[in-house]
What does this fold into?
Amino acid sequence: MVLPIVGSEEVKVTPWEAEAFVDYDRLIKVFGAKALSDEEIDLLKGLAGELHPMVRRRVFYSHRDFDVFLRMFKEGFKCALYTGRGPSGHTHVGHILPWIFTKWLQDRLGLHLFFQMTDDEKFWHDEKQELSVTNRLAYENILDLAALDLDPRKTHVIIDSEDIRYLYPIAVKVAKKITYSTQKATFGFTDSTNVGMVFYPVLQMTVAFLPSELYGEDVYVLIPAGIDQDPYWRIARDIASSLGYPKPAQIHNKLLPGLGPEGKMSSSKPETAVYTTDDPEVAKQKIMKAFTGGQPTVELQRKLGGNPDRCSIFKMYEMMFEEDDVKLQERYHACKTGNLLCGECKAELAERVSKYLIDFQRKREKARNNLSDFLLRTKFNPPKVSK
Ligand code: TYM
It folds into this structure.
């Protein structure tokens, strides 16, 4: 879907593709979301005791009713988190960005997380894809949740193709509220889109209502996810009240750019993505080959400085791999003034990412025997729909 932007320009951000350096301020205007304000940030700080760097730096930068969600939480209403993954391949570091923050929210606010693995979506989306492959990848991707230390007692994974009995009683009601014309206008579907894809959004919306059915009371749900997923929530929020559910709230993250000249970090361009399963040496090589905001020669870099605002390497530091705000500022300045060369900056990142992956992969492998602890079906009975 190409979204018209104020003026004559266009920005392409859909659940399936996105540019590397998006005009995020314009995007929230077009999507009709709200910029995260100091007010919401203070509210979060009051409840969580501190702020995550991704909020301080506005990596999570926009929202729908985040303030309402925090107020409901503060007043003691039942609340939960919801996010997900389309298992089209192994997980890359862009995917784990929202999950890192989700884990922080889980710890700080003590919330249960419902996590959807859409093996059906990724099967329908790609003509050549096998369902057995996306299903196997769903289990591989659960290992990444374990490696992030999400609490299995509070993390409940739904695998669409296997757990449909949890979703279907709600999905039939959701589906009845949505017309084909809304689906086309929201997702850009055409006459040649297979009907699996046309139905799929119903399932992604349904999980936002699942906690209310599982607990038999209104549950206020917050969805931390990339802004590319926003189209689903616009519809879900429109129909929630008529189905008797609270509107799900969202907090949106910006998208980590890929290491190539264009596009967000994406599974469809493996050479420009760092996967959690990459051999640390391979990850280092990808980083060393990355496209940067630097000048073509060392002389020019020293003279003119680089452009960290349009650099995939600087964004990796800013969004994930540098916790210290002062050090991040120093790096920004050193790049701009030509004191830092791209080779040095990449080598340092390559080292950090490689260390991160070694630790991550150790935890990932350790989790193989405890995978079922994360599955919703081992903990909840399917809902008897009350609404
Ligand atoms: P998927 O697998 O495309 O993406 C999973 C999550 O990762 C985010 N994301 C990124 N974040 C930062 N930088 C990037 N380069 C980047 N690429 C992807 C996405 O925004 C998402 O939060 N249909 C969904 C699966 C799903 C889902 C959900 C996602 C089902 N229910 C609820 C979020 C919330 C999908 O294919 O996600």
About this structure: Residues 96 and 144 are 8 Å apart (CA to CA). Residues 15, 82-86, 94-95, 97-98, 116, 118, 121, 204, 207, 223, 225-226, 228-229, 253, 255-256, 264-265 surround tryptophanyl-5'AMP (CB under 6 Å). The beta strands are 3-4, 10-11, 34-35, 60-64, 79-85, 112-117, 155-159, 220-226, 249-253.
